[in-house]
Design goal:
It is a single chain. The chain has 176 residues and is mostly helical. The chain has a domain at 17-122. Helices cover 68% and strands 0% of the residues.
């Protein structure tokens, strides 16, 4: 039981901030940086907002396969979420580390929201499942050794292997 509890405790201690940090780390890899730098260079060449839908389709900022499928809401979302980042990259030409620092500031609130949902949706049954997935054969060996040791101690054997029944105070006294 203590092995399971020992494995469960770390899962219980995972906080929203831990999950958010993991999301941010995963989101901002070098491939994404390189993609945004390339997108920013192409975005810089746009002459007006009328070109946004075409850019969004070509650069996969929209799931649509043609400009006709891009809605005003899609363009508004693009302008709100991506345009400031693309402009900043085009203007400053940051290296990877400067970009990561900037993006973490931009996306921190969103990462915390996502993490809050993930942590809030985790139940005790989920934690028990995590523990079950984390058990290895060595854990079962230690559990068996613990049970055997507990029975040995409960039986009353002392360090020399003698039971309590042979204790000196229980022996009959020999009188001449």
């Amino acid at each position: 039981m203590s092995i399971a509890v020992g494995k469960l405790l770390p899962y219980q201690m995972i906080t929203r901030d831990d999950v958010a940090a993991a999301y941010l780390e995963e989101w901002f890899d070098k491939d994404y940086y390189n993609e945004l730098v390339s997108d920013a260079a192409a975005f810089k060449k746009l002459k007006s907002e009328a070109e946004y839908p075409k850019f969004m389709v070509q650069r996969e900022y929209s799931p649509e396969e043609s400009v006709k499928g891009v809605t005003k809401e899609d363009v508004d979302f693009f302008k709100e979420e991506y345009v400031p980042v693309l402009r900043w990259i085009a203007k400053t030409n940051p290296d990877y580390e400067a970009w990561r620092v900037y993006m973490q500031g931009v996306e921190e609130d969103y990462a915390l929201e996502v993490a809050e949902e993930a942590v809030g949706e985790t139940t005790i049954a989920d934690h028990i499942q995590y523990v079950g997935e984390d058990l290895v054969p060595l854990d079962f060996l230690f559990a068996a050794l613990g049970v055997v040791t507990a029975f040995g101690l409960g039986k009353g054997k002392d360090e020399d292997g003698a039971s309590d029944e042979s204790a000196p105070y229980d022996r009959p006294v020999d009188r001449p």
